[in-house]
Write a structure and sequence with these properties.
1 helix, 3-stranded antiparallel sheet, globular, Immunoglobulin-like, mainly beta, 4-stranded mixed sheet, single chain
């Protein structure tokens, strides 16, 4: 009986685990934060986002150094976004020097605004 219960329960559990296929699931006007590690604006490398649509927008972007006494050192970049209208989109973040076309690293986050 225990084996049958496990066999019946597993598909139901997997259904609930896979229901949310989005990195961020927000409602209109809700803010959410994307934190990118290893940003080094002192070297010219920063995270860039190319706005592609009007589903989400940025409210602010900030840099928090790992060591405040070390000018030009690495730290964390924090982006605050807001859901503007219903729909789905991808936020593609590129770690690069903005004046160059060479991209060091790319991260993509899926967002659904309800």
């Amino acid at each position: 009986m225990k084996k049958i219960a496990t066999i019946l329960f597993l598909p139901v559990a997997l259904l609930f685990v896979s229901c949310n296929d989005y990195d961020y699931d927000v409602v209109e006007d809700e803010m959410f934060v994307i934190t990118e590690e290893t940003s080094g604006p002192g070297t010219g490398y920063t995270w860039c986002w190319d706005k592609k649509d009007d589903i989400v927008d940025t409210l602010r972007r900030s840099f928090i150094p790992y060591n405040a006494e070390r000018i030009g050192g690495p730290g964390v970049e924090r982006w605050v976004f807001v859901g503007k209208r219903k729909g789905t989109t991808n936020i593609k973040m590129e770690h690069k020097q903005p004046w160059r076309s060479i991209v060091d690293e790319t991260r993509t986050y899926s967002v659904r605004v309800k």
